[in-house]
Amino acid sequence: MAALREAVEEVDVGVLVNNAGVVKPGAMFLHEADVEAWVRMIRVNDLALTKVTAAVLPGMVERRRGAVVNIGSASSEAMPSFPLCTMYGATKRYVAKFSRSLHVEYASKGIHVQCQAPFFVATRMVAGLDEDMRLSPFTVSPDAYARAAVGWIGHGGALCSPSVRHRLLWCLTAAVPESVLDWFVLRSHLAISKLPKRIEAWE
Ligand SMILES: NC(=O)c1ccc[n+]([C@@H]2O[C@H](COP(=O)([O-])OP(=O)(O)OC[C@H]3O[C@@H](n4cnc5c(N)ncnc54)[C@H](OP(=O)(O)O)[C@@H]3O)[C@@H](O)[C@H]2O)c1
């Protein structure tokens, strides 16, 4: 923390985007992965984001302005469960709760904290998904997603999903019974977990 605080001390950080994240080791039963893999995931998805935010906030508080954008995931906010990617969904739930609470905590200090929760974006992270998912009309390109995401910084509530396609999918999932979503995600992730080639791509 000391090194981080020192590094940002002289910099006027206006906008912090905590984007780094990992899904590795991908879809598998919790007991099948080395526990170190889950620790690594928590370190990148939650601990790093917390530390960097804590390091940048003092300067923003002093200047009474700033925006913090934390990239969460619809997997934890729009879906009732995320079986076989349990740890990923759980780490992203942390991101959402962390952001929503900071949004309230820092609003009076002129700092806008937000969690952006996308569904699928066709990045390296989802290279292991099957064709149907990658080519789905609800999967957006990184460029399109980034354009939409930038437009939401400093606007809207504590939790948002910048892509119109993702918001549409969010509405559709809200209309589906939770048991059906549970079944669908489990089935999809089981299929991914059984294909060695795809697991490699996720890694
Ligand atoms: N793609 C999706 O469908 C999707 C959906 C929901 C949420 N998200 C979230 O969106 C964010 C961006 O993911 P992406 O889709 O762009 O995935 P990506 O293509 O795999 O990119 C992940 C990014 O995280 C960085 N990163 C990973 N581990 C790191 C570490 N230990 N230290 C520093 N940087 C590290 C990577 O840096 P390097 O390039 O240097 O490895 C890369 O820039 C993540 O938080 C992800 O969870 C993605």
TrEMBL record:
InterPro entries linked: NAD(P)-bd_dom_sf (IPR036291), SDR_fam (IPR002347), VLCFA-Steroid_DH (IPR051019)
GO cellular component: endoplasmic reticulum
SUPFAM superfamilies, A to Z: NAD(P)-binding Rossmann-fold domains
GO MF entries: ketoreductase activity
Keyword Oxidoreductase among record annotations: yes
Domain of life: Eukaryota
Assigned keywords, A-Z: Oxidoreductase
Pfam families in UniProt: adh_short
PANTHER family from the UniProt entry: OS06G0299200 PROTEIN, RH59310P
Similarity remark: Belongs to the short-chain dehydrogenases/reductases (SDR) family.
Protein's name according to its UniProt entry: B-keto acyl reductase
Organism: Oryza brachyantha
Phylogenetic lineage: Eukaryota, Viridiplantae, Streptophyta, Embryophyta, Tracheophyta
